[in-house]
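Dear support,

Our group has been running a series of protein-ligand predictions, and this particular one with pyridoxal-5'-phosphate is the one our PI (initials K.S.) wants archived with full inputs and outputs. We had some confusion internally about which version of the output was final, so please treat the block below as the authoritative record. The input we submitted was:
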Amino acid sequence: MNKEKHFETEAIRTQTKRTQYSEHSTPLYLTSSFVFDDAEDMRASFAEEKEKNLYSRFTNPNTTEFIDKVVAMEGAESGYAFATGMAAIFSTFGALLNSGDHIVSCRSVFGSTHTLFTKYLPKWNIETSYFNVNETDKIEELILPNTKILYAESPTNPAVDVLDLELLGKIAKKHKILLIIDNCFATPYLMNPIKYGADIVVHSATKLMDGQGRVLGGVAVGKNDLIREIYLFSRNTGPAMSPFNAWVLSKSLETLSIRVEKHCDNAIKVAEFLETQAKVKKVKYPFLKSHPQYEIAKRQMRLGGNIVAFEIDGGIDSGRKFLNNLQMCSLSANLGDTRTIVTHPASTTHSKLSEDDRLEV
Ligand SMILES: Cc1ncc(COP(=O)(O)O)c(C=O)c1O
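Confirmed final output from the archive:
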């Protein structure tokens, strides 16, 4: 079986066990809890002597199916599904970090992730040092004896910069720290960070995994021992994905590859068109030759992704005029929807950043 076939077969044929009703497509298991045969079955199930569903905050057939698909697509060992992408990121930190630990992260990260680093994690004495996308040679200087995690997105939100995952993997291995990659923009169809040494891959499933702007979701996949910690943390703190959202998302994954192919096909045409426009100052798209990390993108991504970043001549006023004159595209703060979205990160998703950080990312 070639790799393409394998990816799509996993996406379609990974399925919960068929019930006595012989259904073809997986049913929706809307149930908070599960029943036991007798007292001993109940005790043994809670003691984890048996692999059974106990309560949907822990596991549920729909979330398990969704997780199994992402695990197969990313080449991971196991995973856990969350209500949102931010729940996946926060719970991963909550489970794996202790007070006094230190994170080294790329400065160009999603706005709420940045807020975790600057506002919430410091409450538990966890500090973060940033490196800029074009300064990966400085990462090692930032690593301290208490550094536990190297964190990055690629391509980054919002400016679609690309980080060299092979390099990050080597640095993490050399310093015996965990590499965590937010693979939301690339999806497992375009890139698999685990191949380059990532220990955990997190996703906002709200984006291309859903692909139709309907439900929120998140997932973390990776090594068994780390996911076990994340599972235990989450089973007690309660950020679990709802079975309904897992059902929607698992169906969505069946078409991930063809949707992402089409998104990429459209995005490069938009990027190439914008490059020819006199009033557009700058266009960034990973598979444009003008992208600063074009060679890296070509090496580690199957296609360039669905996001195009661009800057219009004339500053904020031109930007406003552009947004206000769009005929069909939606003004919204999401991405990876069937409906093309145009957004202005500086005044929305990244508005909480300091002026310096905003300019840098
Ligand atoms: C790269 C990235 N990570 C995480 C998130 C957070 O995901 P969610 O909105 O599902 O919590 C987003 C949301 O836009 C994102 O773009």
